[in-house]
Amino acid sequence: MSAQKGSAFLLKIGDGGSPTTYTTVAGLRTTQMSITGEAVVVTTKDSGGWREILSGAGTRQVSVSAAGIFLGSAAETQIRANAMAGTIADYELSFEDGERMQGRFLVQRLDYAGDFNGERNYTMSLESSGPVTPVSA
After folding, report:
1. Rounded CA separation 59/32 (Å)
2. Which residues pair with 123 in a beta bridge?
3. CA dihedral sign of residues 63, 69, 71, 72
4. Which stretches of the chain are assigned E, i.e. beta strand?
5. Burial class (CB within 10 angstroms; exposed 0-12, middle 13-18, buried 19+) of 50
6. pLDDT digits over 109-127, tens only?
7. What is the pTM of this model?
8. Residue 70 class from Cβ within 10 Å (0-12 exposed, 13-18 middle, 19+ buried)?
């Protein structure tokens, strides 16, 4: 199995239609995804001193962070509008091997920066709201 290209890890934003059409957020140079969860502990005196957790219970979340160069695309403009309004919207993560994941996310943080003679760049953090599900091709 060969390594997958980081440039092929794409963040896409939905248009709010039905069915949803996704547009790639242009200008991204780095993208990261984390899947985390909190367990429900069900340890009792019969656990023999070992912690036991309940399978399938607790909370799970997907966090996405990305950084890139601001190009002024419609997708970037929509992300900024969602951040300002606190809007939860549809997003898709796609990978080089064709795997895709879709879910609803809140723009938790959006930062812009720029140098006098350089391009304007941004970083953002998204947090899932509800399930993030794999999409079959």
Report:
1. 20
2. 67, 111
3. positive
4. 10-14, 22-24, 28-38, 59-69, 88-94, 100-114, 120-128, 133-135
5. exposed
6. 999 998 888 888 999 999 9
7. 0.85
8. middle
CATH 2.30.110 describes domain 6-135: yes
pLDDT tens profile 51-97: 999 998 999 999 999 999 988 889 999 999 999 999 999 999 988 88
DSSP string, 90-114: EEEEE-TTS-EEEEEEEEEEEEEEE
Instruction: Sketch the domain layout of the chain as residue ranges.
Output: 6-135
Phi-psi region for residue 27, left (φ > 0), alpha (ψ -120 to 50) or beta?
left
The answer for 11, left when phi > 0, alpha when psi is -120 to 50, beta otherwise, is beta
> Which amino acid, one-letter code, is at 116?
F
**Which token pair is 46?**
């019969």
CA dist., res. 90 & res. 5, Å (int): 24
